[in-house]
Amino acid sequence: MVESLVESLVDLFSSISNIPFGKEMTIFFISCLPILELRGGILAASLLHVNPVVAFIICSLGNILPIPFILWFITPIFNKLKKWKRIEPFITKLENKALSKKDKIEHIQFWGLFFFVGIPLPGTGAWTGTLIASMINMNKKKALVASILGVVLAGIIMLIMSYGVLGAIIG
Question: Using one digit for the tens of pLDDT, what is the confidence trace for 16-43?
């Protein structure tokens, strides 16, 4: 699913990939998005033939950018949005989905969050990890550091997968 979504976004942004820094803007934007995050950004970078080091830096920055906003502002935003009857079920569903994964983080907080963000599996990542950290009132500075380090770990794993293994398969 992620691969087809990334390919669709790469196609959607194909018109800007020919302008200076167009490929880089595309992978930065994809890395900022929930669900795709750095995994999708690095996958897109490999499809666009962006230098792996450049891809790692840009995608990491794109995935790190939302972290402080999620940690410090998502709970108050959710609380305000839940006052609207039409939006409340959606927000509650997001919260419940995040809280269903809290056991992976709650007991060993820093390391749990680090590995939750750092191991690029479906349903994990900086968006979900920092949402959980915010909802369980984890120390925000520790959560910020764990999330950033997790993004770096995920970036290294995805570089190996996208440029190493997948690069060898694709050619």
Answer: 777 888 899 999 999 999 989 999 999 9
137: how many CB neighbours lie within 10 A of its CB? 9
Query: CB burial class (10 A; 0-12, 13-18, 19+) of residue 106?
Result: middle
Q: Model's pTM, two decimal places?
A: 0.85
Domain regions of the chain by residue span: 2-63+154-170, 66-152
How high does pLDDT run on average in the chain? Answer: 89
Between CA 57 and CA 51 the distance in angstroms is: 10
Q: For residue 117, what are the contacts with CB-CB under 8 A and spacing of at least 6?
A: 124, 125, 126, 129, 130, 146, 147, 150, 151, 153, 154
Region for residue 26 given its phi and psi (left: phi exceeds 0; alpha: psi -120 to 50; beta: otherwise): alpha
Q: Chain centroid to CA 94: how far?
A: 16
Rounded CA-CA distance 136/92 in Å is: 15
